[in-house]
Amino acid sequence: MFNETIIYIEKKKIMWLFMAVLSAFFAGLTSILAKCGIKKTDSDIATAIRTIIVLLSAWCMVFVVQAMKTITQIDLKSFVFLVLSGLATGASWICYFKALSIGDVNKVVPIDKSSTILTVLLTIILLKETNHLEVKLLGTVLLAAGIFLMIENKQSKEIDKNNKWIIYAVFSAVFAALTSILAKIGISNVESNLGTAIRTTVVLLMSWGIVFAKGKHKNLKDIDKKEFIYIVLSGLATGASWLCYYYAIQKGVVSVVVSVDKLSILITVLFSYIVFGEKLCKKSLIGLCLMVTGILIMALGM
Considering the entire predicted model, what is its pTM? Predict the structure, then answer.
């Protein structure tokens, strides 16, 4: 009986880790597909369109797992934190895709991944996840060093003229970190797919509200068809990533899940080289290795 219990626990642990890895893969694809879809298309419009796809994916999964019947069981505290998490997600998305539209993928993504550092610190302070604290801190230091090295000084002429992408990327990281913490609190007693769907609904209202507030809805008819397809594919990848990510968040250790999810940078770097020809210099390559090492240390040292 005891051995069976141990095996069951290990299987549950493997499941949320596997879902975290899948989340990283789809998240890596999201950045590339989104970059392809916002060469001419306004980033706010692209974010709003993507959100529709993610919303449909999320609610479809809710009905597939029959989680809709539990919506009346959500308490006020969980609902409030889910809404706050959705608002933080919306803000992170808007900043992230604005940064992608004006900056190189290989420079924007490392800054966005720095949200892991803040997330780890917040989980230690707020959620009291102090297990293997030394390992987590070591991994965080390596991650920070890698990010610093990847943000290379050599920039393209286009980016030299406009460094606003750095500001957007930093805000994206801050809001992303808040998203993980708020979501953990919000889905502690809520089915993960239902929690994701509710959060996505908030993001949808927020993103389209911004589009209409800025009068950008008038440009919807001018969207390039090819870019529209990439935006839709990006939304599908995001939906898949979210469903995997928030299952892992609910079932696993937040700091570990967030760390594994950041391995998506490997997928992003690989495809950014294949699709956009964005190469890494030696310093950035060393930085990437440090980031991956830091992530693996936190993930395996749990």
Answer: 0.71
